[in-house]
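Example 4.3 (complexes with small molecules)
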Amino acid sequence: MRIIVCIKQVPASLDVRVDPKTHNLIREGVESVINPFDENAIEAALELKAKHGASVSLLSMGPPQVREALRKGLAMGADDAYLLCDRALAGADTLATSYTLAQAIRKMGSFDLILCGRHAVDADTGQVGPELAERLNLPQITYVSKIEITGNKVRAERLLEESREVVEAPLPALLTVTKELNTPRYPTALGIMKAAKKPLTVWTAADIGATPEKIGLTGSPTRVTDVFEPPGHRRSEVEMLSGKPEEIAAALAERLQAAKIL
Ligand SMILES: Cc1cc2nc3c(=O)[nH]c(=O)nc-3n(C[C@H](O)[C@H](O)[C@H](O)COP(=O)(O)OP(=O)(O)OC[C@H]3O[C@@H](n4cnc5c(N)ncnc54)[C@H](O)[C@@H]3O)c2cc1C
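Answer. The structure with flavin-adenine dinucleotide bound is encoded below.
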């Protein structure tokens, strides 16, 4: 079985600023991490690998620093990674992103399962997974909180607002996963050392045979015309407590009592 996990690198803090002219996130100087739901997707792939035997390939589109995110995924236990990195891919909306990822997946060869996060925590559309499934003509199951593979079928539990739904689909299929699925593992020291030697392939737009009109800003009909905090929006304030553990506990209890939570 081969599993492909699509991962996006996102800012570590959601306290990021937006460029008032381009309306893009200002990523310079902001620490980046793997989109949290994509870590759940990697964990799910590794658990399926342990249970059924599989190879796990990671795929990401983004700037050169995305290598770090891919190396972390390799350190967690993925087998190889692919980075789509080209200035021509910059500024992609979800339509252009799903086109580009689909082109790369076609080049990567046969697979049984594609896992994506339910959404990326920075732009938050949740569209890339479903669009990718449509482009590759695959059955898709979204908001997955449990996965079972039996023979050539995937059986997944979907997390709905007030209930759970169990859905089956033939493989190959695409699933978008929730954090309820699992708890992602931390890479071990040995995993980090092994990751340095695992294959990480970098492809340009030409390498995946992408049509220039369908990628990056040119291939993106969406324009973010404005991004702003609603009037009256207040960022929550954080108070850091310090001291000995018993002092911190007493101070915390005092705050909770004052807020009538205790
Ligand atoms: C403030 C802001 C608002 C935006 N609004 C829109 C908008 O309304 N419509 C629009 O089309 N675009 C929008 N964009 C652009 C959007 O960030 C990108 O188009 C995008 O590439 C992916 O969309 P997403 O982050 O919402 O991904 P989602 O669809 O939320 O991501 C779901 C999953 O898809 C996979 N995935 C997503 N991106 C990648 C990637 N680069 N590489 C590998 N896997 C990936 C991951 O598994 C991820 O968990 C916006 C960008 C910004 C900064």
